[in-house]
Design a protein that fits this description.
There is one protein chain. The chain is mainly beta and about 180 residues long. It is built from no helices and 15 strands. The protein has strands spanning about 5, 10-15, 25-30, 35, 50, 60, 70-75, 80, 95-100, 105, 120, 130, 145, 150-155, 165-170. The strands form 6 sheets. The protein has a 4-stranded parallel β-sheet with strand order 8-10-12-14, with no helix packed on it. A 3-stranded parallel β-sheet has the order 2-4-6, with no helix packed on it. It has a two-stranded parallel ribbon with strand order 1-3. The radius of gyration is 16 Å and the shape is globular. The termini are far apart.
Length: about 180
């Protein structure tokens, strides 16, 4: 299985639907899909691009974990939570834009994205929580600007980010 084109009558991608489809390179998700369940595309090690349409309001735990060939991720404004290990081990991703709708990045959200060099948050952010080891071992990440909306950064959120030399927290943040 190398390519999946999901029909427009489909509203959800179920639990482990494409789990371990190691030859899958592309998946086309239509605007009719509102849910991508847990581990839906986990271990699709050759999936090159992850584009989630605006219709999706929920992405389950580990949904795209271990998609080691993915070079880009597009997260829509319809998503409010990056669940547990959603993008864990997507280790060819170099940059990620966190949309303004995200309130929480849960534990292990982007753990071991070892080539991540840029994390940007949209200007008007509602992000409140960065979970435990959310960006653990993002070893090429040089800097990050924490939005003022953040009220909690959990243990080891940026642990083993060996090149992280600059963390800027907004002056009007409650973290100061």
């Amino acid at each position: 299985l190398k390519e999946v084109i999901i029909g427009y009558n489909v509203t959800s991608i179920g639990y482990e639907a494409f789990y371990d489809c190691s030859n899958l390179k592309t998946i086309s998700i239509p605007d009719s899909v509102t849910l991508i369940d847990a581990s839906a595309c986990k271990q699709c090690i050759n999936l090159t691009s992850i584009t989630i349409p605006e219709s999706v309001i929920s992405i389950g735990e580990n949904a795209f974990a271990h998609c080691k060939a993915a070079t880009s991720i597009t997260i829509p404004n319809s998503i409010t939570i990056i669940n547990y290990a959603t993008f864990a081990d997507c280790n060819t991703i170099t940059s990620i834009n966190i949309p303004s709708s995200i309130t929480t990045i849960e534990k292990y959200g982007f753990i071991n994205c070892i080539n991540l060099t840029s994390i940007s948050f949209e200007e008007v952010s509602v992000l409140q929580t960065i979970g435990t080891q959310a960006f653990y071992q993002c070893s090429l990440l040089p800097s990050i600007i924490i939005p003022s909306s953040v009220i909690s950064i959990s243990n080891e959120a940026f642990y083993d980010c060996q090149n992280l030399t600059s963390v800027i927290i907004s002056p009007d943040s409650s973290l100061n």
